[in-house]
Specification:
Helix content is 62%, strand content 0%. The relative contact order is 0.14. The chain folds into two domains: 92 residues, Endonuclease Iii, domain 2; 102 residues, Hypothetical protein, domain 2 (Endonuclease III, domain 1), CATH 1.10.340.30. α2 crosses α3 and α9 packs across α11. It is an all-alpha fold. The protein is built from twelve helices and no strands. The radius of gyration is 18 Å and the shape is elongated.
Length: 207
């Protein structure tokens, strides 16, 4: 089966299972939350983001806060000492270069400390509503497992998926695959018997 046909079937399945679409949030909140999410479970990230933004919801407030205060609000996210420093550095750059606003250009986002392609694309999609493919571990793993791509890293997965996924589906693909990766297509204990796309999955066909 051609990959372009396979991705159409997968998108239909994902839309039926996950009907809701993503909305947009404050670009700064998306940026901070995604930085905090690196090597941290989503539920911990959500708690830390809420705790942090209850006191420091602007770049200026984060710059004015001490490292200790920021660390105290974001614990127990992974590497919270490093992330607290990065958030202060990012906030200062936003104030100095962008009048306290988050840029909506991917190259400018990538120039910020600790911001990689996944974080930058998340900001574009969820902060500005700009089509971008945010490829995290779930999207990378599932796309390779089902046979949409054959890649070694998330960046290559982003490049290959962008060739076969309609632009209008970029944001939905990330949110739905993340949920699918937590519920069915898990890293180790994948529930293939209950999967709605097992008949076109390379892993199952290979077995």
């Amino acid at each position: 089966m051609r990959k372009i046909e396979k991705v159409k079937i997968i998108l239909v399945f994902l839309h039926e299972r996950y009907k809701e679409r993503h909305g947009t949030q404050s670009p700064f909140r998306v940026l901070v939350s995604t930085v905090l999410s690196q090597r941290t479970r989503d539920e911990i990230t959500d708690i830390a983001t809420e705790r942090l933004f209850s006191l420091y919801d602007t770049p200026q407030k984060l710059v004015d806060a001490s490292l200790w205060e920021i660390e105290d609000r974001i614990k127990p996210v992974g590497f919270y000492h490093t992330k607290a420093k990065r958030l202060k550095e990012i906030s200062l750059i936003l104030i100095q270069r962008y009048n306290g606003n988050v840029p909506e250009d991917i190259d400018e986002l990538l120039s910020l400390p600790g911001v990689g392609r996944k974080t930058a694309n998340c900001v574009l999609v969820y902060g500005f509503g700009i089509p971008a493919l945010a490829v995290d571990t779930h999207v990378h793993r599932i796309s390779n497992r089902v046979g949409l791509v054959d890649t070694r890293n998330p960046h290559d997965t982003e490049v290959e998926l962008s060739k076969i996924v309609p632009i209008r589906e970029f944001g939905f693909l990330n949110t739905s695959m993340v949920r699918f990766g937590k519920e069915i297509c898990k890293p180790l204990y994948h529930l293939c018997k209950t999967c709605g796309i097992k008949n076109i999955c390379d892993r199952e066909i290979g077995h």
